[in-house]
Design brief:
Helices cover about 10% and strands about 35% of the residues. By secondary structure, the protein is mainly beta. The protein folds into 2 domains: about 200 residues, Glucose Permease (Domain IIA); about 120 residues, Sandwich (Immunoglobulin-like), CATH 2.60.40.2550. Strands 1, 2, 4, 5, 6, 7, 9 and 10 form an 8-stranded antiparallel β-sheet that branches. Strands 12-18-17-14-15 form a 5-stranded mixed β-sheet, with no helix packed on it. A 3-stranded antiparallel β-sheet has the order 11-13-16, with no helix packed on it. Strand 9 and strand 10 form a beta hairpin. The longest helix has 8 residues. The radius of gyration is 22 Å and the shape is globular.
Length: about 350
């Protein structure tokens, strides 16, 4: 039976952890802690903060972190993706040191705000190495305190419990209480641009190659895009009945950087340009950026059957080249069907 008393079960972690310490101090080799494909069905939104001061830098010296962030955030794009069930997996063998469940998936808008991690699992790996898995979906946790587990054991599912702005797994590797970046083997706040040793398995490291920016979603819709509906999984049609008077192209990007230029175009089935926008260079880094453009059909009737195309390009200044380089490029189509 899995324990369900949040404060009590989480509070016994320290004692259990001490009993799990082994003589060896060898770090664990880590497998992917989520059952999804990085860069496709899930995304690394934030990394460990390597900056020792009040600023934030990821291990490449990029902006994919925030001040004091202790782990790696594996996010899914929408609440619908979360509800479909994305499994959280043990990254290495060990013993379950503590479990907390029962907190609502309310993104920190409910009670118990002090429980930032939300529903979670701690695993002791020996040698004072621990992994922590936070923001799990309420009622999804499948392990119990004291249980021996192997790498790949299902711990629960991605959720949005505790203090979380989007559905994700916060994965935190710790040694002697210090958060360690699994990409570099260096402690939080130890500075960026240097790698001691990656703790990911080689195959996992390839799947988790650093992505500075990427699209969380992109679609053409016949109604004005609403960010709340999109984050709930809506407005992602691939086909509609012909006849709408308006068409819109929307995108949501992670990892916008200062100076980045976004370009969007919406075209008809014959390649006729309906709408386009080249946005001003970004004034600051942004964790996520939502954009849309649209076109209304003039005269009587709506848009006829056929294929309509949306194009998105993210251009980034390159100090070694006179023109910006394309770092993100994607096209989408919407089919308008006849009666």
């Amino acid at each position: 039976m899995i324990a369900r008393a949040p404060a009590l079960v989480w509070g016994v972690f320290a004692g259990l952890a001490a009993s799990a310490v082994l003589a060896a101090d060898t770090p664990p080799r880590l497998s992917l802690p989520v059952d999804c494909e990085p860069g496709q069905s899930c995304f690394v939104q934030n990394h460990v903060d390597t900056d020792p001061g009040p600023d934030a830098r990821d291990f490449t010296c990029g902006p994919l972190s925030y001040d004091g962030h202790r782990g790696t955030d594996f996010r899914v794009a929408t609440l619908a993706d979360m509800r479909a069930g994305v499994r959280v997996l043990a990254a290495a063998p060990g013993r379950v040191a503590a479990v907390r469940d029962g907190m609502a998936d309310d993104g920190g808008r409910g009670p118990n705000l002090e429980a930032k991690c939300g529903n979670g699992v701690r695993i002791a790996h020996g040698g004072r190495w621990m992994t922590l898995y936070c923001h799990l979906r309420k009622g999804s946790i499948r392990v119990e305190t004291g249980q021996r587990i192997t790498a790949g054991t299902v711990l629960g599912e991605i959720g949005i419990s505790g203090r979380a702005d989007f559905p994700h797994l916060h994965f935190d590797l710790r040694h002697r209480g210090r958060s360690i970046d699994p990409y570099t083997g260096r402690a939080m706040g130890a500075g960026c641009g240097r790698v001691a040793k990656s703790y990911w398995h080689e195959a996992t490291a390839r799947r988790l190659a650093y992505r500075a920016s990427g699209l969380l979603g992109m679609a053409i819709t016949a109604t004005r895009p609403d960010r709340g509906r999109i984050r709930d999984g809506g407005q992602r049609q691939e086909a509609l009945l012909a006849g709408p008077r308006e068409l819109y192209l929307w995108t949501e990007l992670f990892g916008l950087r200062t100076g980045d230029i976004e370009e969007m175009r919406l075209l008809t089935r014959n390649g006729e340009l309906l709408a386009e926008e080249r946005f001003d260079p970004a004034m600051r880094n942004r964790a996520a950026q939502f954009r849309y453009i649209g076109a209304r059909r003039k005269g009587g009737g709506g848009w006829p059957p056929g294929r309509y195309r949306g194009e998105y390009r993210l251009l980034r200044p390159d100090p070694t080249h006179p023109t910006p380089r394309v770092v993100v490029a994607r096209d989408v189509e919407l089919r308008l069907l006849g009666e």
